[in-house]
Amino acid sequence: MIETYEKRGASVRVERSGRSASTIVAHEHGRALRERGRFRVESLGDRPLAQAPDVAGATDVARRLGMLGRGAVAIERLTVAAGMAEHSVAYGKGTRTWNEEVIRVHLSLVDRERGLRVALDLGAERAEGLPIRIALELAEALQAPAATSAPEPGLVELAPAVSAALWTFVARHPALYHGSRLKISQWSHPSWAFDGAGRKIEHHAVDDATPPSLFRPSFRVAPVPAWFHLHASLRGVGRFRRSAGTRTVGLLSPFRLTRSSVVAGVLAVRRTGACAAMLEIPRQRFAESFLRIGRNGIWFPLEAGAWGSDVLLDGATITPRHP
Amino acid sequence: MTQNWFASSIAEERLVARGGRLQAEFSRFDRGWARARLRGNWIEIDAGDTHHTRGMPESIAAHLASPNPAAPSIALDPESFAGWQFHAITRHRIAVHRGSEPEEQLLQLVVATATARDHGHVSIVSTPESLARETRRLAALLSKPAAGASSIEAIPIAFVNGSAAVLMHEALGHPSEHGAPHVAWPSWLVVADDPGMRSLGYLPLDDCGRPVAKRELTRGDRPTALRRWSFRDTPIVRMSNLSVSGSGSPVALPSRRVEVQLVEHGGWDPLTDEVSIRVSLSELVEGRERGLLPRFTLRLSRRDLAARLAGWFGETVVYPGVICSDEGQSLPVGSVATGLLLQPR
């Protein structure tokens, strides 16, 4: 049986790096065929999508984010991509069609004096839905004076951008939370309800099994099983109102496993200022470390998507990292 | 305001040698056009995959209407290369700068990947013409015995087989593309970017149809070519063909040394000014004894590297290919080099 996927799309990409600044508006029509382990792709160019992408919206977002570089903080790379697409999948006698609209931001901010780099990815259906405030919080933290006091042991708060990255990492290591009160699930998104094969994305606990949905970021690549819109929650935990003295607002290096902990380089904010630090969550009581996972989720375009929210941790340590 | 047109047709195939034949697992054909206008420092690009659009030069329309190119065929005996993977690429592109003649170019590449016991995947980038010779050479290297356990911290490192071009690609090439501050390189070292060299990055005119020139990066020059892989990419200053050579007398090699043959990947971080090189294939040489070393990563600042370069040696050798990924675009960069000797810390 041959599966035939077609996509007609219109997109705009505003790019700004140390070497170039450009706007690319593209119209494309492509097809992908999958049959018995072989995958074939070709651009057709027959019927371009009539609609124009939101050039004004993407340009405005790039302009607003472009103002974040001040003082020692510079924009190393900024990409704003907005697009709309019409998809169809034919398999046997059935055909599914669906439409999507998306805008995504990739931002890399650097503090050259302190040698810090923090990257952020944001996504929404339309420009006005982008949580730009998260980028503002990051830039403010980078511009803040260096924290003068070492963080005290106690509670640590993760900002949504950090917790979304944590869930993406944790989903690859189910042993960290299986059988505990921490629940990681494939969730839904009101704007993107279908996977790369046009099937509805259903809620599903993330486990060792192959994900039930297919991720197809472009017609040019073969779709792969992936967990969509990752979501974390705590079972049987009441409301917890204490607040933390340290809030981690961005990642300086990705999460990884050591023998004893889940660790990441983070940008940590305290009342006295901000600092680069190493966040360590002990493996032994990883799931028990989570006291609160906020219900107001923000979606991030990490892999096939992840919901992040404010998360409160007890038992994690923050160790300032000196450049 | 300047304007240029560009069109690319790219045919790719991924094959694996299995069961006595080459089986295609993936094939892709990608074709489209781009019109770029430069407004001050800002490039505005319209792009698409239709065959015609308003104002399109005839040469671009003719390219888009031409027959699809095919990926290069792999002329190897699949029995002898069982388990190897091949990524065969043909790119046909045309660039038209306002007021100049259209510049057409056809490029064919094959990335060959061997899976060696105890050594993981090892890749080379070749052309259809040199594929047989270079795959045989790689197979011979991989069949050598492993070196005994040894720390390589205190051993001089000799970059052979043209691999010094990869080291300097990261340490001088990328920083020069970014206009990074110059480092005091040894006076005997000559590193140049030459788009006119007949190698993987040969570009008589660049991907915007503009003239290009050889530049000596060790003197603080920047590469001249604006390059892009496909019609969907922004043209940016990139290396084309990097050459490494030395002046004066060559250095004598110590009898005990590490010889770097192939590099898996490398990088330069503009924030830390640090170069990293992941060596996939190297040998420990002790007199006449030779043995393969496990993979290792070399990480050092550019200043440290400049201070540790002890000299050049040997003939100029064409390195079996670099596919350089930067700003989301992968481009082949021709790489030729004499040997370079790096002293331990």
Please give a structural write-up.
The complex is a heterodimer of chains A (323) and B (345). Chain A has helices spanning 55-66, 132-143, 160-170; strands at 3-17, 21-35, 38-43, 73-91, 94-111, 116-124, 155-158, 182-186, 204-205, 213-215, 224-226, 230-234, 246-257, 261-270, 273-282, 290-293, 298-300, 306-308, 311-314, 317-320. Chain A is mainly beta. In chain A, the strands form five sheets. In chain A, strands 16-19-7-13-14-15-20 form a seven-stranded mixed β-sheet. In chain A, strands 3-2-1-4-5-6 form a six-stranded antiparallel β-sheet, covered by helices on one side. The mean pLDDT of chain A is 93. Chain B contains four helices and 19 strands. Chain B is globular and about 65 Å long. Chain B is mainly beta.
Please name the two chains that share the biggest interface, counting residues whose Cβ lies under 8 Å from a Cβ on the partner chain.
Answer: A-B, 34 and 34 residues
Radius of gyration of chain A: 21 Å
- Low-confidence segments of chain B, ≥5 residues, pLDDT <50? none
The proportion of residues forming helix of chain A, as a percent range, comes to 10-25%
Secondary structure: number of strands of chain A: 20
Structural class of chain B: mainly beta
Q: Please tell me the overall pLDDT of chain A.
A: 93
Overall form of chain A: globular
Strand fraction of chain B: over 45%
Please give the radius of gyration of chain B in angstroms. 21 Å
Number of helices of chain A: 3
Query: How many individual helices of chain B?
Result: 4
User: Largest beta sheet of chain B, briefly?
Assistant: 11 strands, mixed
Low-confidence stretches of chain A: none
The secondary-structure class of chain A comes to mainly beta
Order of helices and strands of chain B: EEEHEEEHEHEEEEEEEEEHEEE
Report the average pLDDT across residues of chain B: 94
Gap between N and C termini of chain A, in Å? Answer: 57 Å
Strand order of the largest sheet of chain A: 16-19-7-13-14-15-20
